[in-house]
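Checklist before submission:
- one chain only
- standard amino acids only
- sequence pasted in full

Submission:
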Amino acid sequence: MSDIISSLVNYFKSSPFNVVWMLLVLWLIWPGTMFIVGMVGESRLVPIVKRQSRAFLPGDLSLAVMFLALLSLHDRTCSNPLYWGYNPEWWICVMVVMLFVAMKLRAGDVVNYPPRSGNSPTKLAHDAIGYWFIPSCLIALGVPQLADIFMGESEILISWLVFSGAIIFYGICVAVDAVKGWTPEDVAARHPENWTPIWAQKK
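Returned file contents:
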């Protein structure tokens, strides 16, 4: 794991343009994957503005910013393969714990959708990536660095301010959704009940 993070950190800090490229690539991965799943798995275009959750757009754009902010903190530790934050056991533990958290979040979320909507490709992709994979990576990267601050082995850097700003932005998007609420039409637009994979479309 240290080799992967070291390579990412080296690329990150080698040029300011690389930060932009990494941000764009991360956005292509997520939320970009959702649009690919929508086109292939459901034969439709995922809504961007109208009827879309603000937590998803623009909220999920902040996840890539969080990732890069945490990644930059590893500049001081990535050359040390013995740093506890790179232990496979640590990453596996986080992934396993977050799997149960994601399952709990999904269980409380799918009750708002008709059964076929709750099991649509876009909903499954959203829950697997948004509830499990991305939070797991952020926690596995961030907790060791945060622990170093409390142990006096690190300084509060601009990266933590960027990370905090991204979290606040995401929180605002979630709050907007909570205040606004949603309608059955919103649910149908985000994760339709009548989805059909592109390969099953009638010619």
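Reviewer check: The two ends are 47 Å apart (CA to CA).
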